[in-house]
Design a protein that fits this description.
Blueprint: H1 15-22, H2 26-39, E1 44-48, E2 57-61, E3 66-72, E4 77-83, H3 85-92, H4 98-106, E5 109-110, E6 113-120, H5 126-138
Helix pairs in contact: 2-5
Length: 139
């Protein structure tokens, strides 16, 4: 079971809290955040508290849907995204890593699509996540 990083519903995390929690991956968090805003200028940032079982998470949204969720963990974070069938088809034909494609392919299909969570502990997955962001925004 993962440790809940920000469990207090009454305290929205600030930048200092976030830097302390996710450590060296903070610059990667910022990089992904900037990438979304560059590709979709009207994106809105939003801290979200789905419940004590999960703690605070950060999402970047367009008008109707979340583009990406950034989930703080102990010294790293996860990037979570949900893709509809059209976006899924594009991903399967893309140059995104086989591991991500395989995980997405085996994900349970819900009404809103298939979800994936990618651990971000270093730069190795950043280019794939940026490509996923582009696909998500385009589809």
């Amino acid at each position: 079971m993962e440790t809940i990083i920000f469990p207090d519903k009454k305290k929205i995390p600030d930048e200092k809290d976030l830097k302390l929690a996710i450590g060296n991956t903070y610059k990667l968090w910022q990089m992904l955040k900037e990438d979304v805003h560059k590709k979709y200028h009207e994106a809105k940032d939003d801290w979200n508290f789905p419940g004590a079982k999960y703690g605070w998470s950060f999402r970047i949204k367009d008008k109707k849907r979340a583009i990406i969720y950034l989930l703080p963990k102990d010294k790293y974070f996860k990037a979570a995204m949900v893709f509809g069938q059209k976006a899924f088809d594009v991903i399967m034909k893309s140059n995104i890593s086989k591991d991500i494609k395989s995980e997405l392919e085996s994900a349970k299909v819900y009404a809103e699509g298939r979800g994936i969570r990618i651990e971000v502990k270093d730069e190795s997955v950043i280019s794939d996540i940026k490509e996923l962001i582009s696909i998500k925004i385009a589809n």
